[in-house]
Amino acid sequence: MAAADTTSAVPLLEMRGIEKSFPGVQALRGVDLELRAGEVLALLGENGAGKSTLIKVLAGAHRPDAGSIRLLGRETVIRDPGDAQRLGVAVIYQEFNLIPALTARENIFLGRERTAAGFLRRQQEYRDAQALFRRIGVEIDPEAPCRELAVAEQQVVEIAKALSLQARIIVMDEPTATLTPPEVQRLFAIVRDLKAHGLGVIYISHRLEEIFSVADRVMVLRDGQLVATRAIGQVTRADLIQLMVGRPLDQEFPARRGVIGADRLVAKNLCRGRKVRDVSFAIRSGEVLGLTGLIGAGRTETARLLFGADRPDSGSLELDGRPLQLKNPRDAMRAGIGLLTEDRKAEGLVLNRSARENFGLPNVFQFARWGFVQPRRESNAFARYVESLAIKLPRAEQLAKYLSGGNQQKVVLSKWLARNCHVIIFDEPTRGIDVGAKYEIYLLIRQLAAQGKAILMISSELPEVLGLSDRILVMRDGRLTGEIFDVPNATQQQIMQLAVK
Prior knowledge:
Blueprint: E1 13-22, E2 25-35, E3 40-44, H1 51-59, E4 66-71, E5 74-76, H2 81-86, E6 89-92, H3 104-108, E7 115-116, E8 119-120, H4 122-136, H5 151-164, E9 169-173, H6 181-196, E10 200-204, H7 208-214, E11 217-222, E12 225-231, H8 237-245, E13 263-272, E14 276-284, E15 288-293, H9 299-306, E16 314-319, E17 322-324, H10 329-335, E18 337-340, H11 344-348, H12 355-360, H13 364-367, E19 368-369, E20 372-373, H14 375-388, H15 405-418, E21 423-427, H16 435-450, E22 454-458, H17 462-468, E23 471-476, E24 479-484, H18 492-499
Helix pairs in contact: 4-5
């Protein structure tokens, strides 16, 4: 990859006066974006601010209603994604764009297969895929089917696919959402390498600490409009939050309050293969218990045992001092245990059904008479949670797939609150959620704890774990490696030492 002239006065990309409307929604209002060769431009904004729409215009997935696009000073029309690729634009979307049944190699070169005399050059593709993975700094078998790869490995395949395009502009939409801290650092090294070769990177993330580590400039959208573009050295974290939400957030995390009571859910010597090994802990009423560790540490697998989604090889559970036998999630729900899954779109919601119907799924018995659901009773109950949780949706019949990440998470939470769960497990509760919506979720978690509910919060975001937990457990390789009681005085370094112990 030849180095580009980063001193050129001509921007690598200019988007001027971009407008885009959808039925009933003005998604973009005269937005300007400028990207220079050899820089990282961070694109920030709350969910619904217009970030994804702007990127889809650049990627050819949407045609703008007005405005212009210039690449190296030349006005360009991007009609479709094929145009964007040919013009040197590669996008790594937050939602994976992989075919699960195909191998990593096949996904990387899909549509651009290496051939000679009409025959597929598999060995050449294999070597090229290996070289891409080495550059990223990971070991992945190019012949492994993507459905067998971990989520973090699938993300790496997406990055390798983008790098294989030899693009001049790479858009990364939440690229670290599923990566461990060492993998994040490797990604940052890749980004610096791309900059050194004169590429331009548009970097989208809700993790503000990443922005200060990797970005040269930051651009903030709010309600479809450009709010500000600043050099990263000219803004603070508080400045960015205020620009994004339109108001200052005095504290990122709600104050701890309420009284922590007796043990509510107790796990004793839980084991399941090598994923969960001899895990014992208790969650108390009124407590937010944080559970963290690197990807693959066994956190989600532990949560699945607590919810009856998997059966343990050995070990036991107690709820309020009584033995608890869970054969399936239905048993857990009857016992008053709720789980907000790590992947709310795949496991927490039926995206093509309405918000109201998703709310009613685990609560059908409450709204049914003579075996038939009574929509009015269901709607009235849902309306109460829409108000109390401040769920933003135009109507109860809005399909779940059209809601923002924060509102999707609130719909999932509403269905468990309707069951009056006493123990609620949050697995990555704010993944893919913007700063303003994160605070609302944090506030809800704190309010639930104040009501005496026992909360297990699994999170990879260490500031979140430190800011919200009353006590912290750390896992590695399926085992608990440490417990932190003095959370206000704990540090991220202390957690990481336990996570790699």
